Request: fold
Amino acid sequence: MHTFIAVHGGAGSHSSSTERELKQALRLACKKALDSSSLTSRSPLDVAEVAITVLEDDPVLNAGYGSNLSLEGIVECDAAIMDGNYHFGSVGAISGVKNPIQVARALLQHSQISDPLGRVPPL
Reply:
């Protein structure tokens, strides 16, 4: 079985002066994700979350730590993760969270729990 990891540096344009740092961040995300995939207990969702967390933690990218400010001067992030079986978790304009992908993953997992009152799970 082969494992492939692909990441991208986010929306918008990046300065050519930060190209080296950008490529380094992308390589690091792939490396950390591949390293985590070698652990037999890691699911594809775990591997994806590791890669995205690395991207969110890097200030050269416009995800997580490096996000652009809103008009109000607040960092607001979006994140989504999908398991390939039509289940997903996502957040939009979330603020005050270091790794929005981890919140999206938690929502994905919580949405799989059947609600005894029949309420629609959060997305």
Summary: The mean pLDDT is 87. Residues 16-111 form one domain. Residues 86 and 108 are 10 Å apart (CA to CA). Strands lie at 77-82, 88-94.
